[in-house]
């Protein structure tokens, strides 16, 4: 495993982060979830990402149980706040001071820890003054309940405003967690240049495009049984935009590039995201322990310019690059 600094901070995280969105507390049983976490630890992963909204708080509990007994100082544990939790009442969502303060306490209890290394705003909240949100985050940091602050899916303008307030409050905003992969590059033109200027790193989710970049979805063929695309209750809506004939055919054309480097398609896709110097880590999940063992092989892989160009030649105009697609829900969910 290789490690990178997260933003302009002294915190190092593993190039592969284990995330439990859509799996823990939902798609897989707890024994399997625990086995996946232990496989991640054995593979050298030290960084774990979750959120209070995943499985309506259950995912945090599952991760906390799976990490129990590990040396806390050797782990980097991240969680998030914004989306509805609990009974989903009017104050059970958003980035108000009330919701942040109550949420951090609940997250720490479920995770079985006194602090998280990174506390993230899961989206931008248009209904709460940013000053209120950042002041609450500053108080969370000063109370020792979080060491650093991050965000997820914020635009360049939002990152700039948040970083300015963080600096005034004496805390560090060091990360953004956007979707990023060969097919979804909306952060490249605005978010990444702004982040480089501000000392913010990306922790990218969906580096294999919800499984599409593994090559398991074949053009003209039924979706594999048990796959995300076939599971209407397990995130199929997140993958639909990738399931066009053009994209699926292009993915198959990436196979020779991967094989030339002794990589699987998934490993190539993850390694591709890590070639961007502003990316500190790629988030991967797993429904089986062997998936983790395979994906960690992408850490430390160097792809030369000719390889990156070859990927671009295959993907071409199929990649989404419109920066306006980086956005948060316009209204708070209740």
Q: How much β-strand is present in the residues?
A: 5-15%
Our measurement of the CA-to-CA distance between the termini, rounded to an integer number of angstroms, reads 41 Å
Mean pLDDT across all residues, rounded?
93
Domain module count: 1
Q: What is the number of beta strands? A: 10
Radius of gyration: 19 Å
CATH class: Alpha Beta
Shape: globular
Structural class: alpha/beta
Poorly predicted regions: none
SSE succession: EEEHEHEHEHEHEHEHHHHEHH
Can you give a write-up of this model?
Helix 1 (30-42) packs across helix 2 and helix 5 packs parallel to helix 6. The protein is globular, with a radius of gyration of 19 Å. It has 334 residues and is α/β, with parallel strands linked by helices. Strands 3-4-5-6-7-8-9-10 form an 8-stranded parallel barrel, surrounded by 5 helices. The chain has one domain: Alpha-Beta Barrel (TIM Barrel), CATH 3.20.20. Helix content is 36%, strand content 13%. The protein has 12 helices and 10 strands. The chain has helices at residues 30-42, 58-67, 97-111, 130-142, 156-169, 191-198, 236-239, 245-253, 255-260, 265-274, 289-295, 305-315, and strands at 3-5, 12-14, 16-19, 47-49, 76-81, 116-121, 146-151, 173-176, 201-204, 279-284. The mean pLDDT is 93. The N and C termini lie far apart (41 Å).
Please specify the SSE layout and strand pairing.
Layout: E1 3-5, E2 12-14, E3 16-19, H1 30-42, E4 47-49, H2 58-67, E5 76-81, H3 97-111, E6 116-121, H4 130-142, E7 146-151, H5 156-169, E8 173-176, H6 191-198, E9 201-204, H7 236-239, H8 245-253, H9 255-260, H10 265-274, E10 279-284, H11 289-295, H12 305-315
